[in-house]
Amino acid sequence: MSSPPNLLVTQTELGPVVVTxxxxxxxxxxxxxxxxKRKVIGVDRRAFIDPPGDIEHHQxxxxxxxxxxxxxxGIAAVVHLxxxxxxxxxxxxxxxxxxxxxxxxxxxxxVYKVPKLLLLSSANVYGPRPDNPQLIREDAPLLGAGPFSxxxxxxxxxxxxxxxxxxxxxxxxxxxxxxxILGTVKNAPSNYLRLDVVPTLLGFDPMMQVVHQRxxxxxxxxxxxxxxxxxxxxxxxxxxxxxxxxxxxxxxxMAVPHSLAKAAVKNLFRVRLTKFPAPxxxxxxxxxxxxxxxxxxxLGYAPAHNLEATLxxxxxxxxxx
Amino acid sequence: MQRNAxxxxxxxxxxxLPFLARVAHAATRARDELRLRLLGDxxxxxxxxxxxRYTTLGGDPFGFDPETARQAAMVVAVFHRLxxxxxxxxxxxxxxxxxxxxxxxxxxxxxxxxxxxxxxxxDARPPRVTRAMVEKWTATLPFVSAFFSRVGQxxxxxxxxxxxxxxxxxxxxxxxxxxxxxKPFANRYQLEPFGHGFMxxxxxxxxxxxxxxxxxxxxxxxxxxxxxxxAKALGLPxxxxxxxxxxxxGAMPLPTKYRLHFGEPMRFYGDPDDDxxxxxxxxxxxxxxxxxxxxxxxxxxxxxxx
Lengths: 321, 306
Hints:
The complex is a heterodimer of chains A (321) and B (306). With 321 residues, chain A is of the alpha/beta class. Chain A has 11 helices and 13 strands. Chain A has a domain at 6-183 and 210-237 and 288-304: NAD(P)-binding Rossmann-like Domain (Rossmann fold, 3-Layer(aba) Sandwich), CATH 3.40.50.720. Chain A has helices at residues 6-12, 25-34, 67-71, 91-111, 152-167, 188-194, 213-223, 242-248, 258-270, 293-299, 307-312; strands spanning 17-20, 40-44, 56-59, 77-80, 116-120, 172-178, 180-182, 197-201, 207-208, 210-212, 230-234, 240-241, 252-256. In chain A, helix 5 (152-167) links the parallel strand 5 (116-120) and strand 6 (172-178). In chain A, helix 2 (25-34) crosses helix 7 and helix 4 (91-111) runs parallel beside helix 5. Chain A is globular, with a radius of gyration of 19 Å. Chain B has 306 residues and is of the alpha/beta class.
């Protein structure tokens, strides 16, 4: 694993970065962080409302032919955030967008010799399981898709990028697997903690790991520096029990027996009254936490937000609106 | 007439009130004495020292909660001091810092683990939290899983044990596994074959092994055998036939006297990934040591209940 020649590093250090899925909440925050340092090019099907002035945004599907043009000239890095996770979308559309989209990205990175590729995966690929080690290391098998097929896409993307890491050694490939991201993002854990009455499973109180969205952005920024490659788990502040998270946020918890909760969530999901598919209940039943020692030592990553600030981040927008 | 009645009432009050006060006083004194006998005079200090330890460690990723542990310790003290009247021998052999307690397993339900944990809390100086390695399926049980992790029990995986030992914790393992806990009364104090995982763990982390012999747990439930098909049908690890459960109050274990014998720490050196037979020889040494402790303890005890 020789590091790339220094000449190349200095040339591409602050070259333009392509961010796919830039119009998501995390993507927009990332563009605000990166555009001060380098040119940011966005690719997303959605329109970028109110972007920072110097961002070049292409509103197109990553699978379309036109997307090739974006990657053609002197791109220094690609940050792939464009992973769709909408449980109500059909699984075929999901799969096609995610897998074909990523394959296109990998193809362009390979053909146009982009020196850096970063995939934001998730600690969920390990899956919540009763026999998980308390803190999972990067080399653990990705078992998340077993009970929860919706996460199958993400596991496949993670594996594809993992294979690309070996196939294209000239590109520095990075996979980040952060724990539950909390903040203004609209992901399942943040939505869950935003509920006024938080349902929990009777008799279960697993340890949880949460990470502030800005800490994840910091990790992405660190991983974009030249010479970094490999898979990194990203944990946040110290783990806490689910009940502690709920009480720190001042929410009321409502304990429901697992069988009842499963049936209820399944039916509510079918009539679209909840955004949580039933197998996601395992996340509040079993432990799924990561060991981020590697990120802390090799990347120099350290979460800037403590536990309370990280949890409070889910409410940030409430008082704005 | 009324005055007379009132006067009589005040007479009665004058004679009984001091008596009631004495009863109340005696009751509080008895409660304090019981508390002292059960928990010792330094209970709060012991709890605080554990709290300090986990605060300096920056919390416990396995979910140990000092408050829950404190309450559990108070409940277990009743069994430890009054019900089983545990006698502890050689607890000073447990070295400070990381150590691996290896014990024989018995008694149908894992009271032996609770009593060892209780001894390490009440009788060891300084008090220690015992992190027992528990079966994976307990993590799927409601209440049990939450309670176990709050009192410091950990799912029995090599990775977890390595992490705990690196934190300098005291790990308790029963290398006989589930087979031993549900064995019938006829096989009491006969060790089942030991698993090899604990030895690889000790070699990998350079951890001293403290052999522990538990005497008294075998007689707490008299099992006549194990119905395997029933266990399989109910999804349980075992289905022992325990006739005493049919008697009123039979769900409680018999009040046998527990005796814990801690042996001297054993240190092993070598390659943790060595051949089964090489590891097996080292495991055999530990098994024999526990067997010797058991034989000696059984010879010396005056009776099952005394």
